[in-house]
Every structure is written in structure tokens, then in C-alpha cells.
Amino acid sequence: MAKEKIKLRKSLFSSYFSTILSISLVLFLFGLLGLLLINAKRLSNYVMENVGVTLILKENTREVDIIKLQKSLEATSFIKSTRFVDKETAAEELKKDLGEDFVDFLGYNPLLSSIDVKVRAEFATPESLTQLEAQFLKFPEVQEVYYQRNLVKQLNSNVQKLSMIILVLSGLMFTIFVALINNTIRLSIYSRRYLINSMQLVGATRSFIRFPFIIKSVMHGIYGAIIACFILLMIFFSYQMELKDLIDFQDSTSLALLIGSIFVFGIVMTALSTYFAVNKFLRLKFDQLYY
Questions:
Q1: Contact between 185 and 217 (Cβ < 8 Å)
Q2: Any residues with CB less than 8 A from the CB of 136 and at least 6 apart, and which?
Q3: How far apart are CA 172 and CA 170, in angstroms?
Q4: b vs e for 154-181, b when ≥16 Cβ sit within 10 Å of the residue's Cβ?
Q5: Which DSSP string do the residues of the chain spell out, in sequence order?
Q6: Is the pTM of this model over 0.90?
Q7: Tell me: the pLDDT tens digits for 214-265?
Q8: Which domains does the chain have, with CATH numbers?
Q9: Under a CB-based contact definition with an 8 Å cutoff, are residues 249 and 240 in contact?
Q10: What would the DSSP string read from start to end of 214-263?
Q11: Contact by Cβ (8 Å): 149, 53
Q12: What is the Cα–Cα distance from 13 to 113, expressed in whole angstroms?
């Protein structure tokens, strides 16, 4: 008798553990999806703001004029950052790219000093860059403006396509998450279908039968959410340095919203899945429980 009780406890523990683990893994994936959606705009901004615009400066431009030009550029709303590159630094960088010393071959340095400009994401469109190019050329120190026009067009097109793909995938993944949690709960309830039928036979009402199952499933959802949030936060803070340009680690509001969403999703889905699963077995007759 004692051995049977131990086996029963082990069986119940194994069932609860597998259910909670399955729910926590699904909620963890749900959290990753939420993290992606929250930072999707930041990701696209990161890509667009790496579009470089080079302002080629005129020969013999004074250092004081270059400093003034940089300050006036950085004071505008459409410039994120600027970097001055003198002709010697430009020659060194090109030498590394080419793999040979072209200055020794030519006998002089043909390159001009320049300012590398990073524009803000909302201005990194072909139309905006064309207007900015005209503004840059108005500066007396600027001889030429260079940026990869085809690359800008392609990036804008790809970002729009990527946004649509993320939206569609998010809907698909959400459906999969709902189905996975629903199937996990249904399997858990299925193993106790005879208990549900026995309670019906002794006269228990449907609400009385459903209530403990729903409470237990909600607790599973809470435990699963706690485990999922713990894993997510552990990964989140372990890779701060690697992901600092892609994820805003200072946005505590979005992080709190994400954690809250994981708990709400876990609780609501487990409760609803349990409600419908128990109702299904409440409608079955005893001989139908074998199928």
C-alpha cells in the first residue's frame, strides 16, 4: 500500500512537473517574441542610422571652420553623430581596405578630409537624404556629398518587408503558443477524465468539478510564468553589452509590461484551456471515456 502511494505521488509530481515545464517553455518563447516586438522599432532604427553620409571637404579648409561645421551639424534635429576624418586617416583606412600602400605608388595623397555623418532613422529615406544633400552643399566648406543611394533604397524596402514578415510571424507564433498551451492542458485533464466522471456520478455540479481544476491550472500558469521570466531576465541581463545597441535596457516600463503580459497570457490561457477541456469530459458518458 505504501509503495502504491509513493508511485502515485511520483506519477502526480511527474505530471505536474512536465505540465509546468511545458507551459514555462511556451511562455519563455512568448516573452522572446514580445521582446522582439517591443524593440522592433529600435532594431530598424539601428539599421537605418548606420547609413553613412560623407561630406567631402574642400582643400585647405581651416580647422576652426571644420569645428564650426561639425557643431552646426550636430545641433540640427536630423543628425545623430559626426566624425571628422583628416586626409592622413582616410589614407590609412583606404590602405587597409585595399591591402596596399597607394600613397607610395602615386607619390602623394589624393584624398581630401571629410566628415562622416550619421542621420537619424526617420531621415534615412531616399527623399529626405536628397533634401539633406542639397542643404549640406550649401555649406562653403563642403565640396561634395557622397552616400550609397541604391543601398538606402534597398534598406528602406527591406525594412518595410521585414516589418510585414515580423507582423505575420508574430500572429503565427501567437497561434502556435495558444495551441501548445491548450494541448498541454488538455493532456493533463485527459489523464484525470475518470476522476471527473466519478465526481459527476456522486452528484457534484459542473461548476464544483471545474473550480479545482481551473485553480490548479492557473497555479501552473503562474509557476510557468515565474520560470519563464527568470530565464528571460537572466538572458536579458547576461548579454547587456552585446545587445545594448539593439535593446533598450533602461526602458523599465516596457520590461514591466512584458513581464506582466507573460503572467496574464499564462493565467488566461491555462484557465480558458482548462475550462473548455473539463467541459468536454463533463459532456462525455462513461463508455466514451475510453476513446
A1: yes
A2: 53, 55, 117, 142, 145
A3: 5
A4: ebbeebeeeeeebeeeeeeeeeebbebb
A5: -HHHHHHHHHHHHHHHHHHHHHHHHHHHHHHHHHHHHHTHHHHHHHHHTT-EEEEEEPTT--HHHHHHHHHHHHTSSSEEEEEEE-HHHHHHHHHHHHTS-HHHHHSS-----EEEEEE-GGG-SHHHHHHHHHHHTTSTTEEEEE--HHHHHHHHHHHHHHHHHHHHHHHHHHHHHHHHHHHHHHHHHHTTHHHHHHHHHTT--HHHHHHHHHHHHHHHHHHHHHHHHHHHHHHHHHTHHHHTTTS-TT-HHHHHHHHHHHHHHHHHHHHHHHHHHHHHHHHS-GGGGG-
A6: no
A7: 898 899 889 999 999 998 888 877 776 666 665 665 667 778 888 899 999 9
A8: 2-44+156-290 (no CATH), 52-147 (3.30.70.3040)
A9: yes
A10: HHHHHHHHHHHHHHHHHHHHHHHHHTHHHHTTTS-TT-HHHHHHHHHHHH
A11: no
A12: 71
- What tens digit of pLDDT does each residue of 102-142 get? 666 666 666 778 888 888 888 888 888 888 888 888 888 88
For residues 117 and 141, what is the distance between their CA atoms, to the nearest angstrom? 15
The reported pLDDT for the residue numbered 227 is 92
How many Å apart are CA 232 and CA 224, to the nearest integer?
A: 12
| CA 67-69-70 angle, 5° bins | 65
Q: Are 112 and 59 in contact (CB under 8 A)?
A: yes
* Amino acid letter for position 172: L
Is 31 in contact with 262 (CB distance < 8 Å)?
yes
Cell readout for 113 is 578630409
Phi, psi values for residue 55, rounded to 5°? -100, 110
Q: If we measure between CA atoms, which residue out of 231, 227, 221, 232 comes closest to residue 182?
A: 221
* CA separation for the pair 70, 74 (Å, rounded): 6
C-alpha cell at 164: 510585414
